[in-house]
Amino acid sequence: MTADPIQELEFKDRMLSLGLARVSEAAAIAAAHLVGHGDEKQADQAAVDAMRKQLDLLDIKGTVVIGEGERDEAPMLYIGEEVGSGEGPEVDIALDPLEGTTLTAKAMPNAMTVIAMGPRGSMLHAPDVYMWKVAIGPGYPEGVVDLDMDPAEAVRALAKSKGCPPRDITVCILERPRHAEIIDKVRATGAAIHLITDGDVAGVIHCAASDHTGIDMYMGAGGAPEGVLAAAALKCMGGQFQGRLWFRNHEEKERAHRAGITDLGKKYVLGDLVTADVIFAATGVTDGSILKGARRHGAYLETETLLMRSKSGSVRRITYRQKNQ
């Protein structure tokens, strides 16, 4: 019996997941050679080049919906760029070839490569603007915290649901001047704060693995594209996410209009950002609380990758070793 050609072009997440891991690994290995060398742009470019080369080996008709920026700002892996062999299912791709360029350049913790893939139309085409975010891990009633809550109220609500005092809650926040008031309000409850200098995709993943990281909630403003990537991770790991775009000027609102967004004040929940089952991969570049960084073992270079599928809820840790070149 001849196979149905339409069925052959479906998004087969199980078959594509290992290929996605290879994409993430290749970018991490390329960036690893530049850890501690003080050149953010070179490290980012190395990761971009390696990620694109591996993507083009996959049998997909891929479109980058979250990438390095708009076409005039990014020579490769820009929003709208087509990747893959051109033979296979049509897919959306969200990526950050090197989340934590500064972390890599300075050999600081938690730099990683990040990529998510889903069927065409499955991920919000978020403009390159800021987004206010709140995220928690799995196991809580829907809506226990809300983006419109005062930060102190959100901490108390989460503590009540968890069955602990607020002082036993830890909140991850990007260390930025814009978060000074949030930090003050959270600390006033007695809760602990885990400040990070960069990498808010990793920050959100932290709260989805609270048993491992000790972090219960993420809040604050970071990149909107990173919000979509974080939502893809949470869809696989479980958890809740809310976000709202934050515009600082008219030009940023125009970016949103070009991305097809009409309701500029919309509060997005996870299902708005990622509407179908996705696969997600992240590989450590420097050591972090979620992933080990790339490291040399004699003549070999070793990486650790987190590979997840939302359809099955599977979470794999993959160790990959190759000869150091």
Topology:
Blueprint (H helix, E strand, L loop, with lengths): L4 H4 L4 H20 L7 H16 L5 E6 L15 E2 L6 E10 L1 H5 L6 E8 L10 E7 L14 H12 L7 E5 L5 H9 L3 E5 L3 H9 L1 H4 L3 E7 H14 L2 E7 L3 H9 L9 E2 H4 L5 E6 L10 E3 L2 E10 L4 E10 L2
Give a description of the structure.
The chain is of the alpha+beta class and 325 residues long. Helix 7 runs parallel beside helix 9. Strands 1, 2, 3, 4, 11, 12, 13 and 14 form an eight-stranded mixed beta sheet that branches. A hairpin with a 2-residue loop joins strand 12 and strand 13. It has eleven helices and 14 strands. The N terminus is likely disordered. The chain folds into two domains: 165 residues, Fructose-1,6-Bisphosphatase, subunit A, domain 1 (Fructose-1,6-Bisphosphatase, Chain A, domain 1, 2-Layer Sandwich), CATH 3.30.540; 144 residues, D-Maltodextrin-Binding Protein, domain 2 (3-Layer(aba) Sandwich), CATH 3.40.190.
